[in-house]
Design goal:
The protein contains 17 helices and no strands. It is mainly α. Helix 13 packs antiparallel against helix 16.
Length: about 425
């Protein structure tokens, strides 16, 4: 078990706690907090939804380059040296949102900075997990990425309540927590277990599979000439596009389905309650998906995850005006599986294909390319919303999920690069 080596176990526990917090704020500050900002700023400042989300869309475009730059910086300088200052600057962006008031330039710059700097928060958690764990990678990812659906339970509801009471000064508290997180990462974490005289998973030996890995670096030309790279890019590019589109516009969708009886609107009066219940049920699925990854491999776990997306998308596609308790319950469960499952499986399947040593070399290019369509997810949903046909957007998302599922099926013969250290046959 992971805690048999007590010294390693202490470091693993610290990482799981900090990783959970990192994924909580990654999910919350990427797009989820727009479900609080959008209704508030529409009412307080009279801004329409595209005016509110355009700086986030611009930030998403910049993340296309940010994934490559940050990934390369992690490889060259180490995770902590890049991650710590990035989190501090992101905290300053949150403080800017709090101070913006009705100044659109201050708001736009601040929310833009926050959107861009969730990239090192995400990549840092992913790379630290890939560095520290091989055999237990899926289950550890399942633990830390539970922070994403936990934001659905606690974060959105808490922010809705706090913003309604205190306005955007709520973001000052978020900034303070981020500063504390940056300090904890700086003093409590190391980039690899080898820096502490340990081995991945707390094993008594170096990974056997890494002796067989090629020593040469993976070039972008080599990567982009490989079928397996494009399979990864397409499958998880779609899953990430869908999750951004779904999470950023769930409040707008439920508000559009509200009736005069819903005070103040359907999202606050009904959907948040179901979201909390569904996310509570779905959080264990993050660990279950990670367990499937460890025991059956990343391809099978990814197929399960793709199917779980349907629980999130279909209910919003067919939701009637005034809502439906059954559909809301299914939607909430699907959201939890979706927000917890994608962060769990993306680093797992990349490590599965390329191995621990080449993980970030491949991942920086894969996520850069995936960020291109993901940058337009908000504009995609906004266009349907402005046309008064937001419902149709969800049927397009369902068609995309069919493409990702078929793509994952074509990856079934790809071997695990670290298979000899994964020990699929055992259940410990």
């Amino acid at each position: 078990m992971i805690f048999e080596n007590r010294r390693f176990g202490r470091h693993a526990l610290v990482f799981m706690i900090l990783g959970f917090i990192m994924m909580f704020f990654y999910s919350g500050l990427q797009n989820d907090h727009l479900n609080v900002l959008t209704p508030y700023l529409q009412q307080a400042n009279g801004w329409d939804d595209l005016r509110i989300t355009n700086p986030v869309t611009a930030g998403a475009l910049v993340t296309i380059a940010a994934y490559l730059v940050v990934g390369a910086a992690f490889v060259r300088f180490g995770v902590r040296r890049i991650l710590v200052p990035s989190v501090i600057v992101m905290a300053l962006g949150c403080a800017g949102i709090a101070l913006a008031g009705n100044s659109y330039p201050v708001y736009a710059v601040s929310v833009f900075v926050v959107r861009v700097l969730v990239v090192p928060l995400q990549l840092g958690g992913f790379m630290l997990c890939a560095n520290w764990f091989i055999k237990y990678r899926g289950r550890v990812m399942g633990v830390i990425t539970a922070g994403s659906p936990f934001f659905s339970i606690v974060g959105i509801a808490a922010m809705t309540e706090l913003v309604s009471r205190f306005g955007l000064t709520t973001y000052h508290a978020i900034a303070a927590i981020l500063i504390a997180l940056a300090l904890a990462i700086a003093f409590a974490m190391r980039d690899t277990p080898e820096e502490m005289g340990l081995n991945p998973d707390g094993a008594g030996h170096a990974p056997y599979s890494e002796g067989k890995e090629q020593g040469n670096h993976i070039t972008v030309r080599q990567l982009l000439s490989e079928r397996r790279a494009w399979q990864l890019i397409i499958a998880y590019g779609i899953l990430q596009f869908v999750i951004v589109a779904m999470m950023a516009y769930m409040a707008v969708r439920f508000i559009s389905l509200g009736t005069p009886a819903d005070v103040p609107n359907l999202f606050v009066s009904q959907a948040l309650g179901w979201l909390s219940l569904g996310a509570a049920a779905g959080i264990p699925m993050s660990y279950v998906i990670g367990w499937i990854d460890d025991k059956l491999g990343s391809i099978k776990a990814s197929l399960v995850l793709n199917l779980l997306f349907l629980f999130a998308v279909i209910p919003l596609a067919i939701m009637p005006v005034g809502g439906s308790n059954v559909l809301m319950a299914l939607w909430a469960f699907g959201v939890a599986c979706m927000t917890g499952g994608v962060p769990t499986m993306h680093p797992c399947i990349t490590s599965y294909v390329y191995g621990r040593k080449h993980y970030m070399e491949a991942n920086k290019w894969i996520m850069t390319i995936q960020a291109i369509p993901m940058a337009f997810a908000l504009a995609f949903m906004g266009a349907f919303n402005q046309a008064g046909n937001l419902e149709a957007a969800y049927f397009v998302l369902l068609a995309l999920l069919a493409v990702s599922f078929v793509t994952l099926l074509t990856m079934r013969d790809i071997p695990d690069a670290n298979a000899i250290d994964r020990d699929y046959a055992r259940a410990d």
